UniProtKB/TrEMBL annotation:
Alphabetical UniProt keywords: RNA-binding
SMART domains assigned to the protein according to its UniProt record, in alphabetical order: RRM
Name assigned to this protein: RRM domain-containing protein
Positions of the RRM domain: 34-109
Database matches in Gene3D superfamilies: 3.30.70.330
Species per Swiss-Prot/TrEMBL record: Salix suchowensis
Keyword RNA-binding attached: yes
Entries under InterPro entries matching the protein: Nucleotide-bd_a/b_plait_sf, RBD_domain_sf, RRM_dom, SLIRP/GR-RBP-like
Length: 109
């Protein structure tokens, strides 16, 4: 009994399933980190300056400035990732409205 593809029922090829690895795969995650949004940053701000300013509230994992590709300078906002949620909450309270590089910054969790 041939089908339109020319393969008969008896000529099917069964592929074996790939063998599962004996060791579990590790998924990378930041654990219980917390990210805050920072706006009102100066165009002369650097990630290093932001890390220095926010590190007084807790361990900073990463500071990321959103860059304007055409002008090759920060757009005026970015994100700071803390190792703990409590540090992010303290930073929201402590840095909201404070001056950083001559401009008032606003932080939201």
């Amino acid at each position: 009994m041939a089908t339109s593809t020319g393969i008969t029922r008896s000529s099917r090829i069964f592929f074996s399933q790939p063998q599962l690895q004996s060791q579990p795969l590790l998924l990378f995650s930041k654990g219980f980190s917390a990210k805050v949004f920072v706006k009102g940053l100066s165009f002369s701000s650097t990630e290093k300056k932001i890390v220095e300013a926010f590190s007084e509230f807790g361990k900073v994992i990463e500071a990321k400035l959103v860059m304007d590709k055409a002008r090759n300078r920060p757009k005026g906002y970015g994100f700071v990732t803390f190792a703990e949620k409590e540090a992010a909450e303290k930073a929201c309270e402590g840095m909201n409205g404070k001056l950083l590089d001559g401009r008032a910054v606003y932080v939201r969790f």
